[in-house]
């Protein structure tokens, strides 16, 4: 059995950390600096990151890594981080989407199909609750525009309902009275699907946005994002505006080499710190984003099963509290370690130690 005692840096600092750079540069100059000296301009994945980012920034405005992609059409995203939009699996109503450039948000109809609609209209909406197992979905009957609806869900629940899996669960779990209210009394409700042409500098697919709706203008003249005084985001002129900026330092790396679990462990401990440990949902989403560059169907993590004691553990000595197993029972076999799926829902699966897979190291 392979144990190592001691603290992992990334457990203390999270999967990544922000670095405030007190030098005034254009967005492109800031991007080059971050890539040369750290990892990239700051990527923001959730409201926890927003708080960390605002604590890091000493002055505002300050560049972050979001830039408008002028060479491609707008793309659909789900509001909830970690939920990917699959254009081949949708519930669009007939002749939808018919976006004329202003219909960038999505409504759920009474027959559970989708229509695109302007984001600035006030509509009822459905929130999703990650932590409340007794009631995951909440119909909010006070109409708000899409951005305010998203903010309400994030402050009071988890996010707007996002992804086909959640929509299917909604249909299966809501009681008859709630379904009747949705169908008879409320024609449309906002869900967490939206469209924009913005992309992160590190090419990650994170859909999180925190625009200041009082000042935000989605136009080509101001195509880069910066922090505002109140900690939200606004568009700035990429080439003319020279302001400080925030980089991020990534503490997780995908190794595109196929090795056994033990070989992967020794490699990480020799060149970096250890095989990666995942302690919560935010960690899971950060790590699974990197699987898109993997060359194997599964990627090793720092999970290991002990036959002697009969439980799973992290080689960093962290207790396995957060779990993301593909099936509930992952026990009763020796010489097994934990890997993450590179596709689908990126669940954890048990694999024999001698299989050769890509792997995640923590820095």
Describe the structure.
By secondary structure, the chain is an alpha+beta fold. It folds into 3 domains: 16-71 and 198-249, Mannose-Binding Protein A, subunit A (Mannose-Binding Protein A, Chain A, Roll), CATH 3.10.100.10; 76-196, no CATH class; 251-362, Mannose-Binding Protein A, Chain A, CATH 3.10.100. It contains 8 helices and 21 strands. The strands form 4 sheets. Strands 4, 5, 6, 7, 8, 9 and 10 form a 7-stranded mixed sheet that branches. A hairpin with a 5-residue loop joins strand 5 and strand 6. The longest helix has 11 residues, at 27-37. The model is unreliable at 1-13 (pLDDT under 50). Residues 18-128, 137-242, 248-362 form the C-type lectin domain. This is C-type lectin domain-containing protein. InterPro entries: C-type_lectin-like, C-type_lectin-like/link_sf, CTDL_fold. It comes from Oryzias melastigma (Marine medaka).
């Amino acid at each position: 059995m392979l144990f190592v005692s001691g603290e992992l840096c990334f457990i203390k600092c999270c999967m990544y950390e922000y670095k405030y750079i007190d030098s005034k540069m254009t967005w492109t100059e800031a991007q080059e600096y971050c890539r040369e000296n750290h990892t990239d301009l700051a990527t923001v994945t959730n409201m926890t990151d927003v708080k960390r980012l605002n604590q890091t920034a000493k002055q505002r405005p300050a560049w972050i890594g979001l830039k408008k992609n002028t060479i491609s059409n707008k793309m659909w995203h789900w509001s909830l981080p970690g939920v990917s939009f699959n254009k081949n699996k949708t519930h669009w109503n007939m002749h939808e989407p018919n976006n004329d450039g202003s219909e960038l948000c999505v409504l759920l109809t009474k027959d559970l199909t989708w229509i695109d609609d302007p984001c600035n209209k006030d509509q009822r909406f459905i929130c999703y609750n990650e932590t409340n197992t007794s009631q995951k979905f909440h119909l909010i009957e006070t109409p708000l525009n899409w951005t305010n609806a998203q903010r309400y869900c994030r402050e009071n629940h988890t996010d707007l309902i996002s992804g086909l899996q959640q929509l299917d669960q909604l249909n299966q779990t809501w009681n008859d009275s709630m379904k009747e209210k949705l169908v008879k009394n409320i024609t449309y409700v906002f869900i967490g699907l939206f469209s924009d042409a913005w992309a992160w500098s590190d090419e990650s697919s994170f859909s999180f946005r925190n625009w200041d709706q009082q000042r935000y203008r989605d136009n080509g003249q101001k195509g880069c994002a910066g922090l505002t005084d109140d900690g939200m985001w606004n568009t700035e002129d990429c080439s003319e505006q020279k302001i400080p900026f925030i980089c991020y330092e990534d503490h997780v790396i995908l190794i595109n080499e196929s090795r056994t679990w033990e070989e992967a462990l020794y490699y990480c401990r020799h060149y970096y710190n250890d095989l990666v440990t995942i302690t919560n949902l935010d960690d899971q989403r950060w790590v699974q984003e990197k699987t898109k560059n993997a060359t194997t169907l599964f990627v090793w993590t720092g999970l290991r099963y002990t036959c002697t004691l009969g439980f799973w553990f992290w080689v960093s000595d962290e207790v396995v509290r957060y779990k993301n197993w593909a099936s509930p029972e992952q026990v009763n076999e020796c010489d097994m370690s934990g890997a993450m799926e590179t596709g689908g829902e990126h669940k954890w699966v048990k694999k024999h130690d001698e299989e050769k897979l890509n792997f995640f190291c923590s820095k």
